[in-house]
TrEMBL record:
GO molecular function: rRNA binding; structural constituent of ribosome
Keyword line: Ribonucleoprotein, Ribosomal protein, RNA-binding, rRNA-binding
Taxonomic source organism: Eschrichtius robustus (California gray whale)
GO cellular component terms, semicolon-separated: cytosolic small ribosomal subunit
GO biological process: translation
Name of the protein this chain belongs to: Small ribosomal subunit protein eS4 central region domain-containing protein
Length: 81
């Protein structure tokens, strides 16, 4: 295995291509909001394009907005619902 940081992206021919990224870019990812549902106690929770639920989002966020998700805290267990 290589220690290079990569992300799969679509190229202009609609095929996956490997894109090399910097270490700072590897700490976050961009997700699109697919839907917003109201959970317990009336708290809105958006669901992202990769099926993550964001607890206590920005109140101004709407459907189809792009959200930057910090991978260090989300997958570390701090912000997971």
């Amino acid at each position: 295995m290589s220690s290079a940081l990569t992300r799969p992206i679509y190229d202009t021919k609609c095929c996956f291509a490997v894109h090399h990224i910097m270490p700072k870019e590897a700490t976050y990812k961009l997700c699109k909001g697919r839907k917003i549902f109201v959970g317990t106690k009336g708290i809105p929770s958006p669901v992202t394009s990769d099926a993550q639920i964001i607890c206590y989002p920005n109140p101004l966020s709407k459907v189809n907005d792009t959200t930057q998700i910090d991978l260090d805290t989300v997958y570390g267990g701090d912000q997971r619902c």
